[in-house]
Amino acid sequence: MIEASIVTIGDEILIGQVLDTNSQQLARALEEVGIHVVRMVSIGDKREEIAQTLLQELSRARIVFSTGGLGPTKDDITKAVLAQISGSKGYVKHEGQMQKVVEILHGRGLDVLPSNENQAMVPDRAHVIVNQLGTAPIMVFRDMPGSGSTLYALPGVPHEAVGAIPSIMEDIRAHQPLTQILHRSLMVYGIAESALSEKIAAWEDALPADMHLAYLPNTLTGIRLRLSLYGCTTGDEKERMEAQLIGLKALLGDLLYADGDSDLETTIGGICREKGLTLSCAESCTGGMIAHMITSVPGSSGYFLGSVTSYAIPVKEKVLGVPARIIEEKGVVSSEVAAAMAEGVRRLTGSDYAVSTTGLAGPSGDAFNPVGTVWIGVAGPRGSRTVRYVYKNDRKRNIERFAASALNFLRLYMLEDLKH
Predict the structure, then answer these.
(1) Host H or E run for residue 39
(2) Confidence (pTM)
(3) What three-state secondary structure class fits 248?
(4) Which pLDDT tens digit goes with each residue over 277-318?
(5) pLDDT at residue 380, as a whole number
(6) What's the mean pLDDT in 113-140?
(7) In 3D, which of 1, 27, 407, 409 has the Cα closest to residue 221?
(8) Other C-beta atoms within 10 Å of 247: how many?
(9) What percent of the chain has a predicted confidence (pLDDT) above 90?
(10) What is the C-alpha separation between 8 and 13, in angstroms, rounded?
């Protein structure tokens, strides 16, 4: 398996002025061709630091990528450092990049300045991949002194760096003995990461040495369990991974909501399409987020009938038909209100199933419920059911957890209902 490092160069990254999207896009492309990124490093525009960092990464990884510092201004010093550490004896003009410089600048109605011409001058040890989207060339240094590794130097401008990725991948395929990286994901909701780790500890401990399990938690999607196998060469790796996942799925039971990368709203949509069912929702504390999640799925118009964002008590009473007596006696954040909201919107829309939320996202609670309390209601052909959760996060995170938990509760209710 080939390991790689990515070095991002530029003070603008370190001060938070610019987001480093280049590393993300590059890492994704490398993973697809079987190269494992083991480090990402961000450094400033200092000559000694650039040289030291690149040499260090070259000693660790077979391939190193740098982005940034190749422009026409005085703070763009990366090319000079590359000439130094590659053992180049001078610079040569690359005619292909020079033609592109002229084409780009004349196309913008600009003159070609000496600083622009200088961008087509490259260290004599560099192989050039012409930058089709900008004036700074992509430079490749093979068999770097002291390490024998390869260095790809990309411009820092995001659309130029990302635009160069296909050409870079083609060059890598031509010069590197690639192997495959396999990933398989299972989506889990309704259990804490620590509890999940304990639940599947024996299975995880028994994994073959070349397989690795990662836990990737997310507020809206739960926990993605990603099983990875690096350096595939025998051709039977997919079958081996699937054999391991059979045991994991059995342990997860109803906690598992999707086989593969997915989310709760897509899973629920699949159930509705398969069984010909319809949905609706009534939301208070989630403010329409559940409806937004459901309708973000293409084709949701085929099963989602509508929603009521009953934020105010009069809307709960007059639109959804929640009895005022229940609100007065039990409080607006209660099991009874959640059930009445779900039943009310199901009756109003004529849907097969409905889900509701009423709670306190923050920043304050009330005399009966702490901040982060939510009551979720679901209603269907076999009646209604409710559940209470308390989350201790900020308002935004609480709302996300409320919405995701409501969808998961709806999923479990529908699955149980459909068994009868």
Answers:
(1) strand 35-43
(2) 0.78
(3) helix
(4) 999 999 999 999 999 999 999 999 999 999 999 999 999 999
(5) 97
(6) 93
(7) 407
(8) 13
(9) 87
(10) 8
Radius of gyration of the chain (CA): 28
Burial letters for 7-29: b for 16+ Cβ neighbours within 10 Å, e otherwise?
bbbbebbeeeebebebbeebbeb
CA dihedral 285, 288, 291, 295 (to 10 degrees): -150
Give CA–CA dist 259/267, Å, rounded.
10
Question: In 3D, which of 161, 172, 190 has the Cα closest to residue 67?
Answer: 161
The CA distance from 381 to 420, in Å, is: 11
DSSP 189: -
pLDDT > 70: what percent of the chain? 100
Shortest CA distance to 255 belongs to which of 228, 224, 286?
224
User: Residue 340: which of 378, 390, 311 has the closest Cα?
Assistant: 378
Q: At what angle do helices 395-419 and 264-275 cross, to 10 degrees?
A: 30
Residue 106 to residues 75, 102, 129, 247, 406: CA-CA distances in angstroms?
A: 25, 6, 21, 63, 58
Contact 156, 180 (CB under 8 A): no
Distance CA 305, CA 300 (A): 9
Is the peptide bond between 208 and the residue preceding it cis, with omega within 30 degrees of 0? no
Q: What is the DSSP letter of 137?
A: P
Please state, in angstroms and rounded to a whole number, the distance separating the CA atoms of residues 77 and 79: 6
* Cβ partners under 8 Å of residue 272, min gap 6: 278, 279, 302, 303
The residue type found at 147 is S
Residue 180 corresponds to which amino acid? Q
Phi, psi (deg, nearest 5) at residue 380: -160, -170
How far, in Å, CA of 221 to CA of 258, rounded? 10
Secondary structure letter of residue 147 according to DSSP: T
How far is C-alpha 327 from the chain's CA centre? 41
**Two structure tokens written together for 347:** 């009756």
